[in-house]
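Practice record 12: protein with zinc ion.
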Amino acid sequence: MTERLYYQDCYLRTFTARVIETADEGRRVYLNRTAFYPTSGGQPFDLGTLAGVAIREVIDEDVRIGHLLEAPLGAATEVAGVIDWDRRYDHMQQHTGQHLLSAALEELFAIRTVSFHLGSEASTIDVEAPALTAKQLERVEDRCAEIIAESRPVQITFEDAASDLELRKASTRTGTLRIVSIHGLDRSACGGTHVRTAAEIGMVLTGKLEKIRGITRVEFVCGKRALRRAQSDNRLVASIGRALSVPAEQTPDLIAGLIEKNKSLEKTGQRLATELARREGQDLYTAASPGADGIRFTTQRGSIDDAMRARAQAFVAGQKSVFLAVCDQPPSLLLAASADSGVHAGERIKAAVTASGGRGGGNQQLAQGSVPDGAALAQAEALLR
Ligand SMILES: [Zn+2]
C-alpha cells in the first residue's frame, strides 16, 4: 500500500521514498510513499522526476500508486521525488476553484454539480440544469470573487463516513473520508490536491456553455489561467477594434451593420449577375445563325447555376432556338428550347441521360440531367447535338 503524502500536505514538492517493487524493466515503480498525484476524481496526474528520471504518468491502482518513467529507474532502493510544481499548483488552483464554483451554484441557484474534468486548457463541470443564463453566471462569478477576497481557509480533515458530515454531495464510501472544506461554504469528500486558502484560487472565470441532454457543461478557468484568458480576450477584442477602426465597445453594432450590408450587397450582386446573363443570352441569340432546319443552336460550357439558366431562358426567348449547357463537374447538362422549336427539352434530356446511365427531366422549354462521369457526359452531349 502506497502512503499518499499529498493527502496530508498538498504543498510537498520534494520527498524521499523506498522502492518496493519495479516492473516493465524498471519503467514502472512502486514506492512505500509518494507525493505524486495519480489521475483520479477529474484531476490529471503530476509530472516531475524520480531519482532524476522523468515521470511519464502516475496511475492510481487502488491501494498502490504506479509511477511510469520515461527510462528505467536503475538499482536505487532509496529515491528522491521532485514534483513539477508549476503544473501541480495550476491543478490545485483549478481543482479548488471547482469546489468554489460548484458550491456557489448550489448556494445561489440550488444547481448541483454531477461531474468535473480538469483539462489542459480549460476545465468543465456538468451541472443539473437544462440551461444557465449569462446573468446567473455573472452572479456566481461575483460570489466566488467575494469568497476569494475573504481569503477563506480551505482545510483538509479526516472524518468517519458514518457520522453526519453535511457534505455538498453525499459520498458512497465507508470508513474514514478525506473532507475538503471551504470555511462556512462547502464540505466535500475529495482525494484531490487543493490550495490552502480561497485567495490562492485568484479568480473563477466561466466560459463556454454546452447543453447535453438536460445537463449543462460549464467551462471555467482559475488562477493564472484566468489571467491569461482575460489578457488574450482583451488583445483579441482590441485587434478586432483596430481592424474595424472603431473603439472596441462599438464593434458589436458595427459588425451587425456590416453583416446586414453584406446580405444586401449579395442580393444586388445576384440580381446584376442574372441581368448580365440574360443580356449574354440575347447576344448569343443575335450572333447565332439559323441551321438548315431554321433552328438557332448554341452549346455553352460551365456551371449550371442561376446565371446559366437565365442565359438559356434569354436565348430561347428568341424564335426557333435550342440552348445546350454542359458542365464537367459535377457531370450534368441543361437543355432549353423555344416553344416553336419542335423540340421537347424534357423528353430529349430524359432520353439522352437515361441512355448514358444518368437521370433527369423537365418540361418542354427547360430540362436538366446528371450523369455518372465524363465518358457518360460526352455520350449524352453527342445524343443531344
Ligand atoms: Zn477536490
